[in-house]
Amino acid sequence: MTPARSGVAPLPLAIGALLVAMVSYQCGASLAKNLFPAVGAEGATAYRLGLSALVLVLLRRPWKSPPVKPDWRSLWGYGLAMGAMNLVFYLSLRTIPLGIAVALEFTGPLALALFGSRRLLDFAWIGLVVAGLALLLPLRGIDKALDPLGVMYALAAGVGWALYIVLGQRAGAAYGANAVTLGTLVGALVAIPAGIAHAGTALLSPALLPCALGVAVLSSALPYSLEMVSMTRLPTRTFSTFLSLEPAIAALAGVALLDERLDPPQWLAIAAIVAAAAGTAWSARRTASPESLPN
Question: pTM, whole model, 2 decimals?
Fold first, then answer.
């Protein structure tokens, strides 16, 4: 069944929701980084998913609309991918700038978009990604080379992001809007134990609660709900490629909110990855059709 065509057109709604989600996500990530000195990356992840799950459960009350055909495997996969993705992404932010972390993480959905490509033009986009990564990865032999462990965490987050997209579409088809709530609950099962193990009772500090709630809403509750609107209206490849602005938004958020500074090669690398994603989106648009929307 394709999405209803009445009211707001599905494609503009899906794209608009995705743009708002990306801005919200990066603002939340910038806010979360301010929590690292107090509770670490693990504690910030626990705040993000734990409080987000609580907010979503109170707002959505998923028990009132149980699914007709539950898909527990996809739901648990979606939630576990969400939890692991968030944890390793925040771990990467300890040592590398936000914009670079997102550019590296973005290789996951971009690889998903390019998977199975056979046209020569698609390989040109792959070449741009490789060129961007060559400028970003700690292989340049200069004083400001990136931390290898931070790079590893960011690339691992990219794998989690790709799984989040694929399994999120399946969970969304089975559970509708409740997939975000239920998936966040599962993701919290990954994040909260890690946060407690690292930060302990520091997580209970009342002074941190306002910032923690802001992270939960901006980084998870709002963007994941909006992303589900997009994921259930766009095919996997199209959704992945319309994320092309994410690294640029993250880099700008890092500059504006965290006072992070990137050197010219790093900006060029981010621009190359954005161009590759945008080019892939342009190529995919010619083959997309209403029939290709997820069932």
Answer: 0.81
